[in-house]
């Protein structure tokens, strides 16, 4: 029995070591991509891209859920060339993460920062036909996505929105420059560095000033309720946080 327990403990320790080693390796690789523009550009050669149009992700319908298709660099270059856009726009993409095999994931909005956004908007139906999918607002498709796609697309939308809203230095007014990975923006004139800022999903309480609207499930302990969560624009991730309180009475707000 003791021999069996010893073998089981060693196997568990080995599994934990491998898991930690994989996490550390991925973290170091992503850090390299964020700090080294050349390494990030090289990673794009074998990486995968998620496409957006005015912050709406490209999705494909599959039975009762949506799938987020990935595109290679060569496919993306052909698409941009076909619709008259400069392939240099690929540098507007942002790094999202990577797989365990170090395949880097990027996101690119085909309209944001485009030199001719009106023309790009007119081409949206043609792009959807070419890509065999639809650009759908994330909030409408969120709960029909698997966990991985929902997390990646939420992060992508947040980063793309942040870079679109922070193209100029707040001190000098000069255009700031994004690094290849999109992990920061730098003002060339004063070298100020700006990093993407994320905020959590907001939980809203519906209240009349003295009482609030609460929900309760039969599995909750006696006297425990949960606040109803209101939907807000996705920022960094999706969270279904329940705030439990033991009283229906609230102070005036």
From TrEMBL:
<dbReference type="InterPro" id="IPR015376">
    <property type="entry name" value="Znr_NADH_PPase"/>
</dbReference>
<dbReference type="Pfam" id="PF09296">
    <property type="entry name" value="NUDIX-like"/>
</dbReference>
<dbReference type="Pfam" id="PF09297">
    <property type="entry name" value="Zn_ribbon_NUD"/>
</dbReference>
<feature type="domain" description="Zinc ribbon NADH pyrophosphatase">
    <location>
        <begin position="165"/>
        <end position="195"/>
    </location>
</feature>
<dbReference type="InterPro" id="IPR015375">
    <property type="entry name" value="NADH_PPase-like_N"/>
</dbReference>
<dbReference type="GO" id="GO:0046872">
    <property type="term" value="F:metal ion binding"/>
</dbReference>
<dbReference type="GO" id="GO:0016787">
    <property type="term" value="F:hydrolase activity"/>
</dbReference>
<dbReference type="InterPro" id="IPR015797">
    <property type="entry name" value="NUDIX_hydrolase-like_dom_sf"/>
</dbReference>
<feature type="domain" description="NADH pyrophosphatase-like N-terminal">
    <location>
        <begin position="48"/>
        <end position="162"/>
    </location>
</feature>
<protein>
    <submittedName>
        <fullName>Nudix hydrolase 13</fullName>
    </submittedName>
</protein>
